[in-house]
Amino acid sequence: MANAPERFDAVFLPDGVSKISYEHPMNDPSTAVFRIEREDHTIGNLLRMQLLRDKNVIFAGYRQPHPLQHHIELRVKVKQPSSLSEESPVTALIEAITDLDQELNLLQDRFQFAVGRAQAAQSETG
């Protein structure tokens, strides 16, 4: 196809473009819209579900504006902070990413343990 976009455009981050950026719409410190480059529904849905587990998060949703645009927009609204020490959308996202990282590491460890047990059982019978 002559006018099809290059396949690597969906994966490689161009020079000078940051992976993630955010803004506070209408100067509301309890809401942020994060633009995450070169990601799709896989990361968007994981982050949304993890954010919704947080008791301080009121709303978390994402969208991919267009299939040919290789970014997602993640909107997060937290309870109105009464002080600067309370959770902001940025800290909520950082905590969600940290929690997901820990869950995925646990999944990887359990998977490797199960594979090791299966290999040991196979070598005993074989």
UniProtKB/TrEMBL annotation:
Domain DNA-directed RNA polymerase RBP11-like dimerisation: residue ranges: 32-109
Keyword Nucleus: yes
GO molecular function: DNA binding; DNA-directed RNA polymerase activity; protein dimerization activity
Swiss-Prot/TrEMBL keywords: DNA-directed RNA polymerase, Nucleus, Transcription
Major localization listed first in the record, in broad terms: nucleus
Domain of life, source organism: Eukaryota
GO biological process: transcription by RNA polymerase II
Cross-referenced PANTHER family: DNA-DIRECTED RNA POLYMERASE I,II,III, DNA-DIRECTED RNA POLYMERASE II SUBUNIT RPB11
Similarity annotation: Belongs to the archaeal Rpo11/eukaryotic RPB11/RPC19 RNA polymerase subunit family.
Protein name: DNA-directed RNA polymerases II, IV and V subunit 11
